[in-house]
Amino acid sequence: MRIEALCTGDELLTGVTTDTNSTWFQQRLLEHGEQIARTTVVGDVREEILEALRTLSGRADAVLVSGGLGPTADDLTAEVAAQAAGVPLVIHEGALAALRERFAKRGLAITENNMKQVMVPAGSEVVLNPAGSAPMFILRLGKAVLFFVPGVPREYRALVETAVLPRIDALRAERGETGFRALRLLKTVFLPESHLDARVRPLLALHPRVTFGFRTHFPENHLKLMAEGRSPEEAREVLEAADAAARPLLGDHLFGVDDETMAGVVGRQLLSRRETLALAESCTGGRIGDMLTDVPGASAYFLGSAVAYANDLKERWVSVAHTTLVENGAVSQMVAGEMARGARRSAESTWALSVTGIAGPDGGTPEKPVGTVFIGLDGPDGTEVHAHRFHGDREWVRSASAYAALDWLRLRTRGSAS
After folding, report:
1. Residue 182 confidence class, pLDDT cut points 50, 70, 90
2. CATH tag for 3-174 (out of 3.40.980.10, 2.40.50.140, 3.90.1310.10, 1.10.1040.10)
3. Using CA atoms, how far apart are residues 371 and 373, in angstroms rounded to an integer?
4. pTM score, two decimals?
């Protein structure tokens, strides 16, 4: 079964908006035994959308079309879909009633352009939108079934989950397609993609029903395992065998699986040990704290962070001695150690991490070039400092520093508290 996606919107072509919907759909579709053959992106141009609809409906069995269902002048998808099908646009009464109810609950008046959102090609199947104003509609065009959904991620995902994927499952059953796939991401950190590939390459011949793929999200590199089977159970069994073979090859670089994040894994370990964490950040500018607080429930183990960028705040906020700064410089092993100790003492936490470094592009010296970073860890057994030299631009140095700090704590807090 050939499935394609068509994404519309000038913002996707200009870089104003990142297309996160397609990645999410690809992952969910794999779990239903299918894979996207191609994703096409076009702007808000009537002729471009029409050409794409005609091309895709001639070669695909199913097409997910997203975007262009809003109330504004550049939202053209419904109009062009009707044109491609050779039918008029009509008001869908069920969608209109839902729109009126939605606006009434919010105390808003329906404007004339809002009516555009409840107009669909005549004869299409309509599914009401549980998270927004514009409904989903379904058309048969050429050889394909086309699913039209809004591009707003929360609306897109709600409709794809509840209405698109079940219909794709039904289409597969009609076609007698019984193959299933199971997917897993093994997430590593500070393991270059080429090294990751070299480590797992011997497994390819041993697991012929598994596709091994790779994805880079610096400083992470992910190993994608996609297993095939004649049933969901068989696909999962094939996947588990490949997973069990791959994990030992990844060693300590492996930090998470599927949706797990570095901060989430660290948080889970701290929570299980009933321990807490405080931070003293300089060159990372609060990035570690941001990563930690992205995780719901982080307040159970994360106490707080001092973003002490200026030297006088390093002294006042995390108790770095003035003489230490003068004699060693802000980017030094001694300062990193005192920052960690000061943060832990002030917060009365189990652990404290500190980061001080030169993120660039300026500020480096022959003795301490750009990318020099010191990370401190203070805990029950005392204070340690690791020195790093990260290569790359400012963003890379800051990101690598944040990950290195959390990864160090991850390795230190594995297992039960002593």
Report:
1. confident
2. 3.40.980.10
3. 6
4. 0.79
